[in-house]
Amino acid sequence: MFVVGNTLNHVYIQPRSYKPSFKWMAKNSSSSDVAIEKWKRDGVYIDKRGKLRTFHHKKLSRKRCGSLRGQGWKYGSGFVDGVFPVLSPIAQQILDFLQQEVDADRVWGSLDNLSPSHSTWDDLINVAVQLRLNKKWDPIVLLCEWILQRSSFQLDVMCFNLLIDAYGQKSLYKKVESTYLELLEARCVPTEDTYALLVKAYCTAGLKQKAEAVFAEMRKYGLSPSATVYNAYIDGLMKGGNSQKAIEVFQRMKRDGCQLNTETYTLMINLYGKASKSYMALKLFDEMRSQKCKPNICTYTALVNAFAREGLCEKAEEIFEQLQEAGHEPDVYAYNALMEAYSRAGYPYGAAEVFSLMQHMGCEPDRASFNIMVDAYGRAGLYEDAESVFEEMKKLGITPTMKSHMLLLSAYSRVGNIAKCENIVNQIQESGLQPDTFVLNSMLNLYGKLGQFKNMEKVLVAMEKGPYEADISTYNILINVYGRAGYFNRMEELFQSLPAKNLTPDVVTWTSRLGAYSRKKLYQRCLEIFEEMIDAGCYPDGGTAKVLLSACSSEDQIEQVTTVIRTMHKDMKTVLPI
């Protein structure tokens, strides 16, 4: 049972991200640190520079059933109208209880004891938002279903939105649909966030047609899809790995005359950055500024990341400087992006300088920062330095993740240190983590490079028997290793086994197979495999063309291959983003 009667404090901020374990502290004019929850309700918020400001509390209208009722909720941020709640003692009790208790009857029985007051409503919504930040979808469902079905609170669109989001995250699109219908039946007016969350839920469930239907639903009610809804669609498509469709939606958004906002451009810059098309990312950034759409720190960081992925240090530095000139204080994400640029370019000491600079500027490195440094040293063959950073991370109380171990494993794999790699795999298991397919593929690759085929086969057997299934990358490694070693029969046996394992050969599979025969100048056999590849619907890339050309032993053969490749490129339908 809960005891009710505590006032609720709020901190007004413009958040970049939020970590549940972090406790907001503010500095007052006398320089002493004060916990926000100790401040009185009236007059306190933190501006973007981290300084305390005041506000007129009457601007927070306390409508019936709570000050947060009916205000909606900013899609994607996890914050209610930009309000970051500091949980009251009773809200903290509710949060702790919901995170521990899974029995619906017990949860609802305890919630029944709460009084239907303004402060209780605020507490419940703040708890729901906190649970969302923690990605605790089941407790959100229990809480919101209680509010809608059993409590005496007036039904509110915010509560429906939270419930739609939770069901969407759990890929329960039928529940999403029924919740939306309940919202309409309750005569609540859907907000643009409601539609955005519907689109997001359908994308999460892989139902693009239903996501498209949301736009038709909006038009049925005379609503033009806003940037918020389009952004949700683009984001959902990107997360589902459908970048081409995301580009098409972006172009449609422009054709429909929808006003592009900062989030739209940031999403698309991220999309092109991840596709290693930094030139397109920069083109969008310039277009954004020409349209008087102001980039935020996330936009600048996305562009730095775009250049970082291609190891373009100078361009990354240039954008980083523009970020500062625009009045933004670089955060850990921006510094990490710049470090990544040096790492990818093969300049580990440049990354180390940025790592030192961020600390000097009072920006605390996170786990990703240490991972980037491990990778930077590992890429350069400085495995001892990589391990030093790895150990330093542990000393600071930052628990290495599977990725951290993988980066260290890759560092020692590059220098062929099998004993150390095997030791790292053992460390992974001892730390409570289970080696995944990527780890085992790395060991396969290492054994293959060193010609230890027996150990390689042992790993393959373990993968086929164990909990982690071999993927197409596993067989690409095996086909490449056996092909390079001249074991054509084993290579072909592995290739022919793919359909039975429900695996489809990709361009790397076909090219690795072609490469084996190309090294022996078996031109005719290469042409046969190339035809099989085309018939299978796999389009060759630049690597395939090089392998085919290397199989040629006469001018006529080179001319024949060149003609085939040129003809294919001419006939290939390409979609060039505008």
TrEMBL record:
<feature type="repeat" description="PPR">
    <location>
        <begin position="156"/>
        <end position="190"/>
    </location>
</feature>
<feature type="repeat" description="PPR">
    <location>
        <begin position="401"/>
        <end position="435"/>
    </location>
</feature>
<feature type="repeat" description="PPR">
    <location>
        <begin position="261"/>
        <end position="295"/>
    </location>
</feature>
<feature type="repeat" description="PPR">
    <location>
        <begin position="471"/>
        <end position="505"/>
    </location>
</feature>
<feature type="repeat" description="PPR">
    <location>
        <begin position="191"/>
        <end position="225"/>
    </location>
</feature>
<dbReference type="Pfam" id="PF13041">
    <property type="entry name" value="PPR_2"/>
</dbReference>
<dbReference type="InterPro" id="IPR033443">
    <property type="entry name" value="PROP1-like_PPR_dom"/>
</dbReference>
<dbReference type="InterPro" id="IPR011990">
    <property type="entry name" value="TPR-like_helical_dom_sf"/>
</dbReference>
<feature type="repeat" description="PPR">
    <location>
        <begin position="331"/>
        <end position="365"/>
    </location>
</feature>
<dbReference type="Pfam" id="PF17177">
    <property type="entry name" value="PPR_long"/>
</dbReference>
<feature type="domain" description="PROP1-like PPR">
    <location>
        <begin position="239"/>
        <end position="376"/>
    </location>
</feature>
<dbReference type="Pfam" id="PF01535">
    <property type="entry name" value="PPR"/>
</dbReference>
<feature type="repeat" description="PPR">
    <location>
        <begin position="296"/>
        <end position="330"/>
    </location>
</feature>
<feature type="repeat" description="PPR">
    <location>
        <begin position="366"/>
        <end position="400"/>
    </location>
</feature>
<keyword id="KW-0677">Repeat</keyword>
<dbReference type="InterPro" id="IPR002885">
    <property type="entry name" value="PPR_rpt"/>
</dbReference>
<protein>
    <recommendedName>
        <fullName>PROP1-like PPR domain-containing protein</fullName>
    </recommendedName>
</protein>
<feature type="repeat" description="PPR">
    <location>
        <begin position="506"/>
        <end position="540"/>
    </location>
</feature>
<feature type="repeat" description="PPR">
    <location>
        <begin position="226"/>
        <end position="260"/>
    </location>
</feature>
<comment type="similarity">
    <text>Belongs to the PPR family. P subfamily.</text>
</comment>
<dbReference type="Pfam" id="PF13812">
    <property type="entry name" value="PPR_3"/>
</dbReference>
